[in-house]
Write a structure and sequence with these properties.
There is one protein chain. The protein folds into 6 domains: 108 residues, Rossmann fold (3-Layer(aba) Sandwich), CATH 3.40.50.2300; 125 residues, Response regulator (Rossmann fold); 114 residues; 157 residues, Heat Shock Protein 90 (2-Layer Sandwich); 152 residues, Rossmann fold (3-Layer(aba) Sandwich), CATH 3.40.50.2300; 110 residues, Arc Repressor Mutant, subunit A, CATH 1.10.10.60. Strands 2-1-3-4-5-11 form a 6-stranded parallel β-sheet, sandwiched between helices. A 6-stranded mixed β-sheet has the order 7-6-8-9-10-12, sandwiched between helices. With 937 residues, it is of the alpha/beta class. Helix content is 54%, strand content 14%. It starts with a helix and ends with a helix. Helix 12 runs antiparallel to helix 13.
Length: 937
């Protein structure tokens, strides 16, 4: 019996060969595409809450979009180790080709992971490790490196000294252990950094707030918080805000997923801890496809802060846009595959039709030709599909390359920022020191103008004006640095803006009048109040008016107008000039730093004024805009809010005094009349400690007309000379190699031999917080370079006058006078110790100055200068005073004779005792006893 296929073959054996080939092509199974093997991957996630965990899942989904042959099943343990054990075993029962585990706690999950590994199922650990080596591969960040990087960055923020609080994750987590170990190891490199406290937050923002609040209240010295993830860092910021310490304490987090936390300064920085979702899927596919792979896959980390967060956000947006394109192309591919499937169905129908046609013997040849055309179209479609797949792979490689580039750019950006900050700091200090050497002699020449001719005086005034201009440029550079690093803060108070602007406009009246320029101030109301920081806005309006005066031609006009907005919420201050205006090519660059534009030679400037003004206005939550018509002038408008947030308002406190160099004559008359005016042959000794040889010589020459002067060129030598010579006053620089000025002051105030000596600090560091740091160290006066020599001399005289008043206080104490307000505690302790030594040796008639100095552990000269500085008397006179004071008490005891009293207090001669007693108290010992022990009438 013949089969059906043999009948068909034989009936067509006489047909053309192409028809036979078509028949063989259409046999069932010949056109079935080869399918890829199916993989089942199980993922045990400790939790899906939090932005970092969500980023892990999103990364896995992105990678799986390229691998439709893989099926992923994920279970969420919701931060419960017991539940995670059960879920891992549930995944194993469902059948798996590979298991991915992100453990909540290392110990409890280990048995379930070991069970999967011993059954031959590959296990990939994601982010968290377990307590066994029974796993196939690990992928995730290096928590030890993250902790070390956080410690290094924290040390740089706090200048390598300060107290730190650490927010720990879950106690059993490998991430918690690694980050804590790396952070503590990193801090060992900075001996002045101290880990003040630790708070366990269990990765949960809600549970850590109360213990964190208690820890911060117990440790007010904490200036930085290291949180093991960004979520706890955000909760720490809320606690700090409630305590009013958000500006004093900085926060470093870990994750780097929600970049807005760094951009909005909720966090000072965040350590990038890559979610590694894509990496986990790629590693799993290498294992399943028997490809080479690494067992340990540690992902690097970078610090995300204000220097690179905008770049990171831009790259993230670009990656998301590219991912959207990939999704669109994947959708197109799915559409094409659906078309392919539908065409395959049509093909099968046609095959059935063809077979029926063959059986019927009617339309076999036509159906075969049509089927071949369809196959040709499918082949073309397959080629197009392969092309799309290659494009998707290329896009993915491009994204990976851009991510690597971003990490390199971020590292370079950090290095560039560090170099820029070091440059500005050194640049400021190096400029202020020579300015001191210029301004001092110039001011003295102008003060002694009688010896100068008119041309010479004009030349000296020209030098002073240009030196002041150079100082203004240095200050603008420092303001630029403060704005760049976020160090400049607004401290607003409520006041009348009309009076404030009027005062600044008045300063420009005289220079404008000299050029025939008319300055008009137009105001809608006599009083317009607002909250503003005068130290910030005066720089804004000064720069705008200086710019207007520079570009306004002679006989021109400058108009300053001030008015409130229609809704009353803002104030607008406009500065309009009649200058040449701003060209079209310059308008886009007006507010750029150091841009000078196409100006005339006479109008050339530093290119910092308008950029600084805009930065300061923005800092004040306002806007600076401009309008200009070429040839008709320009108008700059400052719009300021009348109300400011509470965080920008200053508390009631004394405002710091800022003296301009040309205000010296006013300052001179403000010193007390009691200040001493020593002659050149005075015994007063001043010690100058300054590492710059020229400044050191300049100070010594200026002070030798009024004092004896000794000098030192470094802090160690200066402290040694201070303890040996016991000077009456010390003038010390702050920035010195080795022992800094602040450290010298601290050591002087801690040593009772030198604690009484007034100290004046001279420095180029003029920031308010730096001045506060100097005063806190114990300095009596803090002067910034460049300083005026006359002002320095008057300051020294005032400090010495205060020391005289303190000396009188001790004299009254020794003479038995009524108590006066207490002096410095270190000096009081010295007087008390000295008195105790003398009283313990009163019976020794031969008690010498050397004996007392030896008991105190100092030299005879040191003791003499200390007693002279504190009490204004010699050591021998002091011993005599203590003996006679003791004699008064003993004379009141009528059981002792006068002779007994004399020998009791160390007098070997009764006549000498009587003479000394009468010289001190104007009565003899016998008369004193008769006056105070006489029986009542």
């Amino acid at each position: 019996m013949q089969t059906f296929s043999s009948i068909v073959f034989r009936s067509y054996s006489q047909r053309p060969h192409w028809l036979l080939a078509l028949w063989l092509l259409l046999l069932p199974g010949c056109t079935s595409p080869t399918e890829k093997p199916k993989y089942r991957i199980g993922f045990s996630q400790c939790s899906t809450t939090g932005s970092w965990r969500q980023a892990v899942v999103a990364g896995m989904e992105r990678e799986l979009s390229f691998h439709p042959e893989v099926q992923l099943r994920m279970l969420d343990a919701q931060d419960n180790s017991q539940r995670q054990q059960q879920q891992i075993r549930e995944l194993l029962r469902g059948g798996l080709d590979l298991l991915i585990v992100s453990a909540y706690e290392a110990g409890p999950v280990t048995p379930a992971v070991q069970e999967a590994y011993r059954r031959g199922i590959p296990v990939v650990l994601l982010d968290r490790r377990i307590t066994t080596q029974d796993y196939t591969a690990y992928v995730g960040g290096d928590n030890l490196e993250v902790g070390q990087a956080a410690a290094t960055y924290a040390a740089r923020l706090l200048h390598e000294q300060g107290s730190v609080l650490e927010l720990l994750g879950a106690p059993g987590s490998s991430a918690t252990a690694g980050r804590h170990q790396g952070f503590t190891q990193g801090l060992t490199a900075f001996p002045n950094m101290r880990l003040a406290a630790q708070v366990t937050g269990y990765w949960n923002a809600a549970t850590l707030k109360r213990p964190l609040r208690l820890a911060l209240q117990a440790h007010p010295e904490v200036s930085l918080i290291f949180a093991h993830n960004d979520n706890m860092g955000r909760a720490a910021q809320e606690v700090l805000r409630d305590l009013g310490r958000s500006k004093q304490v900085r926060i470093i987090g870990v994750d780097g997923v929600v970049l807005e936390l760094v951009q909005q300064r909720v966090l000072t920085a965040s350590l990038l801890y890559s979610p590694a979702g894509e990496d986990a899927i790629r590693l799993a596919l290498k294992i399943l496809n028997k490809q080479p792979y690494k067992r340990e896959n540690k992902l690097s980390t970078i610090v995300i802060d204000s220097t690179n967060v905008l770049t990171m956000m831009q790259q993230r947006e670009k990656i998301l846009a590219q991912q959207t394109d990939i999704e669109l192309q994947r959708g197109l591919l799915q559409t094409l595959r659906a078309t392919y499937a539908s065409q395959q169905t049509v093909l099968n129908g046609l095959l059935a039709t063809l077979l029926g046609a063959i059986l019927l013997g009617a339309v076999a040849w036509r159906s075969a030709r049509k089927n071949r055309q369809i196959n040709h179209q499918l082949a073309l479609q397959n080629v197009e599909n392969e092309k799309i797949n290659r494009q998707l792979v290329s896009k993915n490689e491009e994204i990976s390359f851009q991510r690597n580039q971003l990490e390199e750019l971020s590292a370079q950006s950090r290095a560039d920022t560090e170099a820029k900050l070091r440059f500005f700091t050194n640049f400021s200090h190096e400029l202020r020191t020579p300015l001191t050497l210029i301004m001092g002699p110039v001011e003295e020449l102008l003060a002694d103008s009688a010896n100068l001719t008119a041309p010479q005086r004009q030349d000296v005034q020209l030098v002073r004006r240009n030196t002041q201009r150079l100082l203004q440029l240095v200050n603008q550079l420092l303001d630029f640095r403060k704005i760049e690093v976020g160090k400049m803060t607004v401290r607003a108070s409520e006041g009348n803006v009309v009076d404030f602007v009027q005062d600044i406009v008045d300063l420009f009246e005289k220079p404008a009048r000299q050029r025939g320029i008319r300055v008009q101030f137009q105001v809608a109301e006599p009083v317009l109040t607002a909250w503003f920081d005068g130290n910030i806005l005066d720089k804004v309006f000064f720069n705008l008016l200086s710019n207007a005066l520079k570009f306004t031609p002679d006989k021109g006009r400058i108009t300053v107008s001030l008015q409130a907005s229609p809704d009353g919420q803002f104030l607008r201050v406009s500065v309009a000039d009649t200058g040449p205006g701003i060209s079209e090519q310059d308008r886009a660059h007006v507010f750029e730093w150091f841009y000078q534009g196409n100006q005339q030679a006479a109008g050339k400037g530093s290119g910092m004024g308008l950029a600084l003004a805009q930065g300061l206005v923005r800092l004040h939550q306002g806007q600076l805009t401009f309008s200009s018509v070429p040839g008709q002038g320009a108008t700059f408008t400052v719009e300021l809010p009348r109300e400011l947030p509470e965080a920008l308002r200053a508390h009631a406190e004394a405002a710091p005094l800022h003296f301009a160099l040309d205000e010296l004559e006013t300052i001179k008359g403000s010193f007390p009349d009691a200040a001493p005016q020593p002659s050149p042959d005075t015994e007063l000794l001043v010690l100058v400690i300054e590492d710059n040889p020229e400044v050191n010589d300049f100070l010594a020459r200026k002070l030798r007309s009024d004092f004896r002067v000794e000098t030192a060129t470094d802090g160690h030598t200066g402290f040694r000379l201070a303890t040996e010579l016991i000077p009456d006053l010390i003038v010390c620089d702050v920035m010195m190699p080795g022992l800094t000025g602040l450290e010298v002051v601290a050591q002087l105030k801690d040593d009772w031999r030198t604690s009484h000596i007034p100290v004046v600090l001279l420095t180029a560091r003029n920031a308010p917080e730096q001045q506060v740091e100097g005063v806190q160290a114990g300095a009596d006066l803090y002067l910034t370079k460049p300083f005026n020599p006359t002002f320095l001399l008057e300051s020294l005289r005032t400090l010495l006058a205060n020391r005289n008043r303190q000396r009188e206080h001790f004299r009254r104490q020794l003479s038995g006078a009524p108590d006066t307000p207490a002096a410095a505690s270190a000096d009081q302790k010295f007087v008390a110790d000295l008195t105790a030594i003398v009283e313990a040796n009163l019976t020794k008639a031969n008690l010498s100055v050397e004996d007392v100095a030896r008991s105190l552990g100092i030299s005879r000269m040191q003791l003499y200068r200390k007693v002279k500085a504190v009490l204004g008397t010699g050591v021998t006179d002091f011993i005599q005073s203590v003996r006679l004071l003791k004699a008064r008490d003993l004379l009141l005891n009528d059981t002792l004779t006068v002779t007994d009293v004399a020998y009791e207090i160390g007098f070997s001669s009764l006549s000498y005792f009587s003479t000394s007693f009468k010289a001190r108290y104007q009565v003899s010992p016998s008369e004193f006893r008769a006056l105070h022990t006489a029986p009542p009438n």
